[in-house]
Fold this protein.
Amino acid sequence: MAKAQALVTLGRTRDVIAIVRARLGTIPDGSAAAAIAVLGFAPDRELAAKLAGWFTRGDARVRAGVCAALPAGAPAAAPQLIMKGLRDADAMVRASCVDAAVRGHKARSRPDPTLVRRLRELARDRDRAVRARAIGALGVFEPAARIRAIDDPAAEVRAASVSGASESELRVLAADRDPDVRASAITTLGDRSPELVTRAATDPAPQVRTAAIAGLGGRTVDDELLERLTADDSPEVATAALVKLAARRGRTAITTPFMARLAGAPPGGRARVRIALAWLLAR
């Protein structure tokens, strides 16, 4: 998938489609599901006409691949296939078609009431991945709707529930036992709760510390936290902190101190790349 996306970006879509045609043949099996999904960003008229048939005759992986190709892979057939997939017996297919519904919605002005009703049902699905996707989708279709899922036993569902959570619920989620849930809550809160962001900046989980960096504002304590986080054990956290610090201070102000950092950094190490990146991204 990544290679195919790179080729499309480089203008080699015809080459990608030729490979996909050769891989799929007439009735693909589950091992070709990824090739079907490629049609989502490299659509082909010839193969678009076959997607509905593959969805009907294929196994669960094929059906999920068809949903992953929608709506771009077959715009005309997409609404019907997506609704069919949302009622599929296999959770993998239901989850994939929820994502397809969101992609299709972005090009529409008003959501289909039947589709929204089905998504509400899927928010209570027996499968955790389906519940999480459905709750996230409802945040797109009905931003004002409230689906309470902060007590769901599955961490991925609790993380998805931040899209419709109140501020008091976000505060509960920011203290969740799962680090991904805490990170999602902190990201959603942004700079609205400085005390929670400050606490999150020292969280033991790197993804939470990274989320906190985005919410650090203009306080003196925030600058001090950013400085400390530029030396974090996690490369991702250290990079995010240095980029944020550079963006806040501006290229003119950081050039001299960053040159000093560069001079003191070990040759060939990540620190030098991090410094160069932060300087290039600054304005």
